[in-house]
Structure formats: C-alpha cells, structure tokens
Amino acid sequence: MRSDNFGLKLLAISVALVVPIGSFLGRSVVEMPAWQRVGPIAWAIFSRQADLGNGEVLYPLFGIGSTVLAVALAIAYRLNRNAPRSAALPVYLGAAFAIGVILATTQAAPQMLSLSHVGNDPVVLQRALDTFERWQAIRTGCIALGYVSNLWALLCIVSSNGKVASVTGQTSR
Asked: In angstroms, rounded to a whole number, what is the distance separating the alpha carbons of residues 10 and 1?
C-alpha cells in the first residue's frame, strides 16, 4: 500500500477546506447581515483594519491555495487510469467550483480594495458593501458546493469495490 493514496489526498484536501468554508459561511450568514444593520461606515472602518490588514495575506493564500489544490486533484484524477470513473463528475465539479470562487473574487475584491481610497461617503460605501455582499454570497455558494463535491468524490472513491485508487495508478484494499 502506498502513502500517496488518491483517496487520502482527497480527504486531506476536504479537511483543509473546512477552515475556508467556515470563514466564508461565517462572513455570509453572520457578519454581512450585521454589517448591513450597523451601516457601511462601520463596515468600512472594520474592513480597513481586518481585510486590508492581515486579510490581504491570509485570504489570497486560502483562495489561491485551495483552488490550486482542487485543480491539481482534478489533473491527478484525470491522469490516474485506475481511478473510479464514478468520481469523475464530483472531482471535476470540485475544481470548477474552486475556480468559481476565484472568478467571484475578481468582483468582490475590488469592492473591498476600494475602501482604501473612497473615504467615508455613506452612499459610496453602501454601494461597495452591497456589491461585496452579493459576490460574497456567490463565493460562499461555490466553496460550499466545492466542498460537497469533494466529499461526494471521496465517497465514490472509497466505495468503488472496496478499492481506493492511488495517484500512481496502483490500487490497495
């Protein structure tokens, strides 16, 4: 049995995505409604310190890192001739949803980054908040669906005749 087991790599990626999923869900379900209630100026003040502070490093690492992992997993799956075909759709969906997060971020990030230079005009900030919230919801949907896809793929791989395919094409029981 090899340590580079494909199913174990998929499991590791799924577990690694728990932190970003929790972060995205927390922001979309808890924080964004609260920011709408306290207002755009409070949101901007907080976001300038958090998202445009440490978040400028942490969030891209999670976003880009999880996308690279999902795409690498899809490539490894494609190259593995012994991987169960039943896992194809969920593996590829996982990569597609990860790319969806990045694409939605191309719309959300400019709203956040604009806070560094738009001042405190409540109308401008409300527009940024509303737009950010809309794209944040899309990002959250993509990351949640990607996670579900990874779990589905893992289930397909583990339940495939009791065998788990490795990236090298060997199988183990």
From this structure: 17
Tokens of 12: 């590791």
Distances (CA, A) of 140 to 1, 26, 86, 106, 155: 37, 9, 26, 14, 23
User: So where are the chain's domains?
Assistant: 6-168
In this prediction the pTM is 0.82
Q: How confident is the prediction along the chain (173 residues), in pLDDT tens digits per residue?
A: 333 466 666 666 666 666 677 788 888 899 999 999 999 999 999 999 999 999 999 889 888 988 998 899 899 899 988 888 999 999 999 999 999 999 999 999 999 999 999 999 999 999 999 999 999 999 999 999 998 998 898 888 888 755 544 443 554 44
- Alpha carbon distances (Å) from 93 to 14, 79, 124, 150: 13, 17, 36, 8
